[in-house]
Backbone:
């Protein structure tokens, strides 16, 4: 399988057990299975009011954190000339040009694919809360400004020859060496989708891990979690599509846990398509929450919640005690 964007293919990345892939830092968004594909574009999903905090920014998206701070993918922000604007429900807010852009970094000092800017005025939206790293099997809701899809699915047959895999459309049901999915349209809409986080890699003992790091030219090295697009009969099953890197990922408690960044697709898969079996990759915000707080002076969770689980208890005290005086927490 291959990591891709519809706009570019650059760089090389090894995943897990030597699976060669190509990754590109370009915009992605939310596309859902079943129905017409537009059944989740009418407003917030139940229990996820943070949907309203996701704005349209250029050819991507951004997330309003609170206190006028906007979070997005750096490869979205970096591709926009000059100042940008954020549009929420048809109302546009200008960037505060007196506040410099903040680029987040990894623990080793490398640049991550996240950027933060401040708005000149605050939208009438609540502040979000950042949640902890999701365990494998966590239910998630993604929100994006991605492209629409064809109303009906398409079946492709793929044939391997001369060290390459050629795909061709085929009528009828799926069969061996075939794939089912959707072609993308050219227009965009804000919509949400649901999924479940998957194992991203394995450790030295073969145990599954929920996270991995990916290095992207122009985007930076970023810690990711992900989900698989599966044909499970759900009409809200979501994956990423073109035009919405910077979209939000929420857990079931409406906590912001990730940012949509990349997709991982089959070798030879036609461009501008989503196929069952594709993966979506999201930046893991828990790794960067302390840095966001220190750079913006915005509190990503309730005071004292060191592990970002939404409550303050003895576990938080142990973390704070272990790091007391070190400046690392």
Residues:
């Amino acid at each position: 399988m291959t990591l891709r964007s519809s706009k570019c293919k650059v760089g090389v990345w090894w995943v897990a057990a030597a699976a060669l892939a190509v990754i590109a830092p370009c915009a992605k968004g939310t596309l859902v299975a079943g129905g017409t594909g537009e059944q989740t574009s009418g407003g917030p999903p139940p229990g996820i009011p943070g949907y309203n905090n996701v704005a349209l920014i250029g050819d991507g998206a951004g997330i309003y954190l609170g206190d006028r701070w906007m979070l997005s993918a750096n490869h979205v922000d970096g591709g926009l000339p000059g100042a940008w604007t954020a549009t929420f429900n048809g109302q546009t807010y200008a960037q505060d040009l007196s506040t410099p852009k903040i680029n987040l970094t990894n623990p080793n000092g490398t640049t991550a694919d996240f950027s933060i800017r401040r708005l000149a005025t605050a939208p009438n939206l609540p502040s979000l809360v950042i949640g902890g790293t999701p365990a494998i099997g966590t239910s998630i809701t993604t929100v994006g400004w991605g492209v629409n899809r064809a109303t009906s699915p398409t079946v492709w047959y793929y044939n391997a020859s001369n060290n390459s895999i050629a795909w061709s459309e085929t009528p009828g049901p799926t069969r061996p060496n075939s794939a089912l999915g959707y072609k993308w349209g050219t227009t965009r809409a804000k919509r949400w989708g649901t999924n479940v986080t998957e194992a991203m890699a394995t450790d030295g003992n073969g145990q599954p891990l929920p996270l991995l790091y990916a290095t992207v030219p122009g985007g930076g090295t970023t810690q990711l979690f992900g989900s698989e697009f599966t044909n499970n009969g759900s009409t809200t099953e979501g994956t990423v599509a073109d035009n919405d890197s910077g979209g939000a990922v929420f857990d079931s408690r409406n906590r912001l846990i990730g940012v949509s960044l990349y997709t991982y697709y089959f070798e030879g898969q036609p461009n501008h398509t989503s196929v069952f079996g594709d993966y979506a990759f999201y930046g893991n915000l828990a790794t960067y929450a302390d840095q966001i707080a220190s750079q913006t002076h915005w509190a990503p969770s309730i005071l004292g919640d060191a592990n970002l689980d939404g409550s303050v208890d003895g576990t938080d005290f142990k973390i704070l005690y272990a790091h007391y005086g070190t400046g690392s927490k």
